[in-house]
Write a structure and sequence with these properties.
Layout: E1 2-9, H1 13-24, E2 29-32, E3 43-47, H2 48-56, H3 60-63, E4 68-70, E5 72-77, E6 88-91, E7 101-105, H4 106-118, E8 123-126, E9 130-135, E10 140-144, E11 149-157, H5 164-168, E12 173-189, E13 196-202, E14 205-212, E15 216-223, H6 225-232, H7 236-246, E16 254-270, E17 274-275, E18 278-280, E19 286-287, H8 295-310, H9 322-349, H10 353-368, H11 370-381, H12 385-402
Parallel strand pairs: 1-2, 1-11, 2-8, 5-13, 11-18
Antiparallel strand pairs: 3-7, 4-7, 5-6, 9-10, 10-11, 12-15, 12-16, 13-14, 14-15, 16-19, 17-18
Helix pairs in contact: 1-4, 1-8, 8-9, 11-12
Pathway: Cofactor biosynthesis; ubiquinone biosynthesis
Domain FAD-binding: 4-308
Keywords: FAD, Flavoprotein, Monooxygenase, Oxidoreductase
Length: 403
């Protein structure tokens, strides 16, 4: 029976990135999970902090040609409500960056990760599914679908919302649903996007265009489930015109590419993010609507914390309380991000006039107050930086008064 330092269950983007990061540190890693049956048509916007981590992992050189930079993000109120918000523009130059981040197609990104996995001598890729787990104080025993068994000091659940690792570790989960579905597709357009992402806030949810290389963009369109079903049945030319109209023709003529995909929207938060020898990353730990480019960026912070916590190999077994310590370090970040995305999404859905008024007032304040907008942008790029900036500003004021 082969023994590993860490077994990672789930070979999507989060699991693959975790496996590469830990193997580069010198740990013996097993990455377990079948390859996806259907190519993922979605894209992922990774922010500046995540891009820096891809550079550290020596991945960015291959990933960058697939991407388009996000130099600005604008929010437009596309509702017909009584209280409407003014346009809000966030520009990376306001916080001293060339771009907030980059938009990356998921399928070729995963192919690049698979090539890097194959080149790491301490990483073994098992394409069989994990079928059974025995987690105790001494080690983790994992049965695979090809009748093999492996053992590991730690098991990392990167196996999605229905995580078998989470269940085997006895970790509960809080789930909730929204009366929404997300339509995702890519499209070409007549006019250049100028590396600007535009998010229309509508009564059904956000309609978000994100740049791709050239005159192409990806779309995440959140709608009511029945509307989403009807949208999927539209002929390509009708769908293209519908998207152009929804965007108010700001990118000219639109032509959709391939078949759109649809995903029901729901939220999930594990009661714990680690326990004993089990740790949870990605959607095994947290999941929420595709708003504000938070999903994989939050997962990458899981991975950064995981690698930092485990450290480099010492020749000794990894501690049995690693999961508990990981839970303590990730709790504040995950819970705060989950709550903020949930609040924003529910504010879009609410028909309660005071809620609509508060949302409009908040966006108006962001539109007119440059320092507050800058603080929010820094927090989105580097979580915790807003609080740190506030503390430093307060200390500076105290120093000035003392002088």
């Amino acid at each position: 029976m082969d023994h590993y330092d860490i077994a990672i269950i789930g070979a999507g983007l989060a699991g693959s990135l975790a496996a590469i990061a830990l193997a580069r540190e010198g740990h013996r890693v097993a990455l377990v999970g079948p390859r996806p049956a259907i190519a993922d048509g979605r894209t992922t916007a990774l922010m500046d902090q995540s891009i820096e981590y891809l550079k550290k992992l020596d991945l960015w050189g291959e990933v960058e040609p697939l991407t388009a930079p996000l130099v600005a993000i604008r929010i437009l109120d596309g509702t017909t409500r009584l209280f409407r918000a003014p346009p809000v523009n966030f520009r990376a130059s306001e916080v001293g960056l060339d771009a907030f981040g980059y938009n990356i197609p998921n399928a070729p990104f995963l192919e690049i990760l698979e090539r890097h996995e194959a080149g790491l001598p301490t990483l073994e890729r098992a394409t069989a599914a994990a079928t059974r787990f025995d987690i105790d104080g001494a080690e983790v025993r994992i049965g695979l679908g090809d009748d093999r068994s492996i053992t590991a000091d730690l098991v990392v659940g990167a196996d999605g919302r229905r995580s078998a690792v989470r269940e085997a570790a006895g970790i509960g989960v809080r789930t909730w649903s929204y009366p929404q579905a997300a339509i995702v597709l890519n499209f070409s357009h007549e006019l250049p996007h100028q590396d600007v992402s535009t998010e229309f806030h509508t009564e059904g949810g956000p309609f978000t265009q994100v740049p791709l290389p050239g005159n192409r963009s990806s779309l995440v369109w959140v709608r009511k489930p029945r509307d989403a079903e009807e949208t999927l049945t539209l002929a390509p030319d009708v769908l293209s015109r519908t998207i152009e109209d929804r965007m108010q023709s700001i990118l000219g003529k639109v032509t959709t590419e391939g078949m759109p995909q649809s995903f029901p929207l729901s939220g999930l938060s594990a009661r714990r993010f680690g326990k004993g020898r089990a740790l949870l990353v990605g959607e095994a730990a947290h999941a929420f609507p595709p708003i504000g480019a938070q999903g994989l960026n939050l997962s990458l912070r899981d991975i950064m914390t995981l690698v930092d916590l485990i450290g480099r190999p010492t020749g000794s077994r990894l501690p049995a309380d690693t999961g508990d310590r990981f839970d303590g370090r990730r709790r504040a970040d995950i819970l705060s991000r989950t709550a903020s995305v949930d609040l924003l999404n529910r504010s879009l859905l609410s028909n309660f006039l005071p809620v609509q008024a508060l949302r409009a007032a908040g966006l108006h304040l962001l539109s007119s107050a440059g320092p507050l907008r800058g603080l929010l942008m820094r927090e989105g790029i580097h979580p915790g930086s807003a609080l740190q900036a506030f503390k430093e500003g307060l200390r500076e004021q105290i120093r000035r008064k003392s002088a």
